Amino acid sequence: MKIIAVLDDHPLLLEGVASFLNNQDGYLVYPFLEEITLIEFLKVTKADLLLMDMQLLKTNGVDVCTQVRKLFPMIPIVALSNLADGNLIVQFMQAGGNGYILKDVSNEEFLGCVQLGLDGKEAICDRAKELYRGAISTISSLPRLTQREKEILTLISNGLTTNQIAEQLFLSPVTVETHRRNLLTKFKVKNMIELVQLAMKHKLLGLE
């Protein structure tokens, strides 16, 4: 009997998924509305798979995935979401996820992905796989930022002016302006608003 934990803060959806899986042979499903009770359960029960929503009331799927992966490195974690967003799928997989299933898949495809997850394989439904590959392709085609460019872009996103950035990084305002122009050219955007939006979308901000 395979033990599957399901996390979703929508009671009706949670009950539906749990009921559907429990009606299949070989599955024992434990539903959870909050990540806190899920974590406590996983501390005392060896689950074979975690299915989890990406939109949670008090947190988000990427953060929960990161936490669960850190505490329980062996459990396969598969998202079950209605968010068809390639960048989000990339973030989830980078956080330690093993798969991503969109909630509008057929019963057959859903069960196929569940079995892949239980087998420790990548469990991504066909549509999510297309979105995932597209996002990976886009990210890989983006220009690489130097460490200094990352610092300046992060400070720009925080609302600092050229003079404030220059003072904080011990640079001249002329040097900062040069970096700003180079960033616009490198990413082929018209202004800093577009640049910051692009950087946030693809998680380019911050120091590594």
What's the topology here?
Blueprint: E1 2-7, H1 11-22, E2 27-32, H2 35-44, E3 49-52, H3 61-71, E4 77-81, H4 86-94, E5 99-102, H5 107-118, E6 123-124, H6 126-141, H7 147-157, H8 162-169, H9 173-187, H10 192-201
Parallel strand pairs: 1-2, 1-3, 3-4, 4-5, 5-6
Helix pairs in contact: 4-6, 8-9
Domain HTH luxR-type: 138-203
Protein name: DNA-binding NarL/FixJ family response regulator
GO molecular function: DNA binding
String of helices and strands: EHEHEHEHEHEHHHHH
Count the helices. How many? 10
Rg on CA atoms, Å: 21 Å
Distance N to C terminus: 43 Å
Gross geometry = elongated
In terms of DSSP E residues, the strand content is 5-15%
Low-confidence blocks of residues: none
What's a quick, concise take on this entry?
Residues 3-118 form the Response regulatory domain. With 208 residues, the chain is an alpha/beta fold.
